């Protein structure tokens, strides 16, 4: 079961990075990914890599949880800021990143619960 959690966390990190590289905002003919414009996609990638560092060890489950929460915060903050400032529509990349960081947080909680029992 532990191996499944580790692999699931690794896949969530990968999906989050793919999401950062995908479009986060469409305004007219312009499309911005998570690394362009006012987006904090680079912070999301740093947080996801920190989470990945904590995935393999039960002792570092807290690191994974905190990093996943930070990544989720940056994504939600960008989603709300873009809506207010840029207009347009959200791209699939920000939604994939949101889903991946949320899943990573849930998986980190599951790993912590299973590790303490």
Explain the overall architecture:
The protein has one domain. Strand 1 and strand 2 (30-33) form a beta hairpin. The chain is built from four helices and three strands; from the N terminus they run H-E-E-H-H-E-H. It is mainly alpha-helical. The two termini are 13 Å apart. The protein has a three-stranded antiparallel beta sheet with strand order 2-1-3. The mean pLDDT is 88. Helix 1 runs antiparallel to helix 2 (41-55) and helix 3 runs antiparallel to helix 4.
Uncertain segments: none
Distance between the termini: 13 Å
Order of helices and strands: HEEHHEH
Mean pLDDT across all residues, rounded? 88
Task: For the largest sheet, list the strands in their spatial order.
Answer: 2-1-3
Major sheet attributes: 3 strands, antiparallel
Class derived from helix and strand content: mainly alpha
- What is the helix fraction of residues, given as a range? over 70%
Beta-strand content estimate: 5-15%
Number of helices: 4
